[in-house]
Write a structure and sequence with these properties.
The structure is a single chain. This protein has 250 residues and is an alpha+beta fold. 45% of the residues lie in helices and 21% in strands. It contains 9 helices and 9 strands. It has a 6-stranded antiparallel β-sheet with strand order 6-5-4-9-8-7. Helix 1 crosses helix 3 and helix 2 packs across helix 3. The longest helix is centred in the middle third of the chain and has 21 residues. The relative contact order is 0.11.
């Protein structure tokens, strides 16, 4: 959130939530001045609310800056629907990691983004930017393409209307070309990302369905674009996603 975007709410609760929401995925710490600028709050107001959040545990002091507190992690772990999905998926994610030694993600749709709910990785995996709890645009991720290809039509229309942001030279930014890519994903049963969200990184993803056959999540294998053979790995990720779907249907 940045200053000047939208109207600053009047309630204390809403202003406190704005301060927490000011942290982007890449932010480990923010200063008081940065928090005030991103939220549009007066610095004195931000200072008072930040102090309250520190006392509650939602923020922690780190020198002259602040970082998100452990209290937020504790609350996140109590969200039953996401927690249950993560716990059910973890054995399949671990099996997939053991067979590939690449980064394994469990992602869910969140607005027009793909939200990484879980990540299994190791010292042999290619270092990548994603973190648990981080979001990336749907149009340039393998998991996001699954949601766009197999999910409600509204997903595609919404992101196309908003514009397809370019993250790398290989990001698909033309709606017509993206539609063709999604049609291929629909036909093949898996989606791919070839250096479209991060240079040097590729991924392949498959859909996870709930007991009522509704698209719920996606599992992906992510690693070096030079090393990964996406077509060869597609059966493995599809098998893991199918096994998780079958488990959720019991």
């Amino acid at each position: 959130m940045t200053a000047g975007v939208g109207e600053v709410p009047k309630s204390v609760l809403a202003r406190g939530l704005m301060l927490l929401d000011a942290f982007a995925t890449a932010d480990s710490e923010l200063t008081l001045a940065e928090l005030a600028h991103r939220t549009g709050l007066p610095k004195a107001t931000a200072h008072r609310l930040v102090a309250e959040l520190v006392r509650w545990g939602g923020l922690e002091r780190s020198g002259h800056a602040y970082r998100l507190g452990i209290k937020l992690f504790e609350l996140g772990q109590r969200a039953p629907r996401r927690r249950d999905l993560r716990e059910a998926a973890l054995p399949y994610l671990q099996d997939l990691y053991e067979s590939t030694h690449e980064n394994i993600h469990l992602a869910v749709p969140d607005g027009v983004s793909t939200l990484f709910l879980e990540k299994v990785t190791g010292h042999r995996s290619t270092p990548i930017l994603s973190r648990v709890g981080s979001r990336m645009p749907m149009h340039c991720t393998a998991t996001g393409k699954i949601f766009l290809a197999l999910g409600p039509p509204g997903y595609f229309h919404q992101i196309a209307a908003a514009g397809l942001a370019r993250r790398t030279a290989r990001t698909i930014v033309a709606p017509g070309l993206l539609r063709k890519e999604l049609d291929r994903a629909f036909e093949q049963g898996y989606g791919v990302n070839r250096e479209e969200s991060e240079v040097g990184v590729a991924a392949v993803a498959a859909p996870v369905y709930d007991a009522r056959k509704r698209l719920l999540a996606a599992i992906s294998i992510t690693g070096s674009a030079e090393r990964l053979d996406l077509a060869r790995l597609a059966p493995a990720v599809r098998t893991a996603a199918f096994a998780l779907s079958r488990s959720l249907a019991r």
